[in-house]
Hints:
This protein is mainly α. It has 3 helices and no strands. Helix 1 packs across helix 3 and helix 2 packs antiparallel against helix 3.
Amino acid sequence: MAMEEQAAIDQFLGDKPSSAQLRQWRETLRTRSRRLRRELKEADPAQAASLRTRLAEMERQMAVLEQEEMITEFVEDSVRVTLAMGSVNEGDRLEE
């Protein structure tokens, strides 16, 4: 069932990334933003403005990725529930 489930989710998502992929991208940005914050603490004033701009953009991107991750996870869970409900209904028909 797990392979069928994943195939159904992949088909439904099409070319969109999975929630796991979105989470990984967000975590990568979080790691980069931590590094950027450390650089900002040591940066001279001329570099600081540029680093703050980059950091703000990263934070915006992380927020967007988090929203997309939650939406995609909801879609994936909906597909799983639909498949599970189909299995339950199929089992009921077999018992009759």
